[in-house]
Request: fold
Amino acid sequence: MRATLMYRAGDVRVETVADPAVRKPTDAIVRIVRACVCGSDLHPYHGLPEQERGMPMGHEFLGVVEETGPQVSSVRAGDLVVASFSYQDDTCEFCRAGFQTACSHPEAGFFSAAQAELIRVPLADGTLYKLPAGVDTALLPSLLTLADVYGTGYHAAKMAKVTAGDTVAVIGDGAVGLLAVLSARQLGAERIILMGRHKTRTDLGREFGATDVVAERGDEGIALVRELTGGGAHKVLEAVGHRPAYDQAVGVVRGGGVISRVGVPQYEEAPVGFASLFGRNITLNGGPAPVRAYIAELLPAILDGTVDPGKVFDRTVTLDEVPDAYRAMDDREILKALIAF
Amino acid sequence: MRATLMYRAGDVRVETVADPAVRKPTDAIVRIVRACVCGSDLHPYHGLPEQERGMPMGHEFLGVVEETGPQVSSVRAGDLVVASFSYQDDTCEFCRAGFQTACSHPEAGFFSAAQAELIRVPLADGTLYKLPAGVDTALLPSLLTLADVYGTGYHAAKMAKVTAGDTVAVIGDGAVGLLAVLSARQLGAERIILMGRHKTRTDLGREFGATDVVAERGDEGIALVRELTGGGAHKVLEAVGHRPAYDQAVGVVRGGGVISRVGVPQYEEAPVGFASLFGRNITLNGGPAPVRAYIAELLPAILDGTVDPGKVFDRTVTLDEVPDAYRAMDDREILKALIAF
Reply:
């Protein structure tokens, strides 16, 4: 099959590799129909050291089940399925508590070979979600966002306990930030301030439900949001992961409020003491999103057309065009590339 | 009147000072019946630089209202009252949300002159809580804990959302840690592991509901708690405030769990990234306790004898003996000193 491999920062190639095969009785093989490039794929695109063998890329996909191991019972060959970016048993204590990304099964993990024609899915029963047969092809981009970016934006809003009447600040205008806006709106937020400075993206944010856009960053952005909100936002959804975004979150959150992070922190230490979190009883939470837990909850509004999270895809490429899709996302020429097979 | 003043680290004196007077129409003057020395009073006892005029000390008291300003309506002269260690209007947006220590009233603040015969109470209606007339004198120590340490321990458990069946780890065997144990038990925790190494204190912790005591600290203590709990405690109540206690909390918390802090952080930066909080979806919260919000909730079980939080007082002193009470607490000769007038 053809698959995407990264050999070092900036060097992405699509090559012919061996087809994956069922290795465990709980595995499935899926023929990919739609996949995409994630903002987080740009981290190695910037920093990956030279690899002897290419590193397989991609963690978001939907496709058709090709083969299942003998212990797989929830899906079978021919089913259209979407997978969470993590694979898990969905039955352990942590999965049952809604933290599938902390699954205690020894085979649990995260996908990293989904920009390819076929993929091996471990723990298929806990990972794959069967989509309705005969679904409209036009819905596939939105359904693909259930694999990561929509569920991740939703996780930010859920962990923050966004509720009717809340004022929410969303930091970051990437796909996750924009879908955090959509999620906050679905959960009833009254006012949603999107902090981002790329107009085409913040325009989509407004379409998803942002009531205000603040392009300023740092102290200036903090002062503006505090003024707009009369002292800060109840809930802050941080969808960037860099330290200045953390500091911005601390600056714009209201006393007694929540900072919910889904941007993977590119720092380890940060302020949590009296002056930042403690003195004002701020809650800090978030983490890798258990998107498998949210698929069933988010699916109906996609199927009935209430929401269209697939709008975050602003270019469709073939698998062979994936290297250029990385470049275009890195150049901010596009927001997010969809791969159609 | 006589009042406690600190002149520099280690130098506590009881001196004659001017009586306080009503200054604002919302003030009250209270004649103190019981007060006490707090673990947090030991911070200046260790580090206060030389003061030209002595710094008034103490923030926990109950007493009898002596005089009220013309706008005070909820209490009057002769009422027995307990005050929260903070004073607030109890009507602003933050107070209504249960974060009285973030009250937005310009006069809101924290008491610092309660180891004295009389005290001026700003915003008396939002600060003083009227106790039943004719209450048994034997209950006064327990009622005094409502001013700070009981409400603070309870805040730790409430912010952590301790609930039936939870496994809870409490870090610290001071008065707040021990009352966090009691609070966790009241909220239904199934297993409560107290991390502390002073046997007389941890014995009281067992009486308050601790099911296990771990005296080891650092990596050894973490390994023991992780083993006892099969991977960590759902909720960790941190009642110390020093950085090693934070690290211990991160070490013993279970994936998807909560670290709730009420020990005032003596650090500003700490790990919050992928390896500590984010990767396992840990929630970090807590802060200065809005104890005013909890008095009504905690009072009945004191009055009917179900709980006896006043057991944290293991020595009773007169006002003139307060300097020696500081010394005895600092030497860990006693846990907490009660001042009887």
User: Anything to note?
Assistant: The two ends of chain B are 12 Å apart (CA to CA). The interface with chain A takes residues 94, 97-99, 101-102, 104, 159, 231, 246, 255-256, 261, 264-265, 267-288, 290 of chain B (CB under 8 Å).
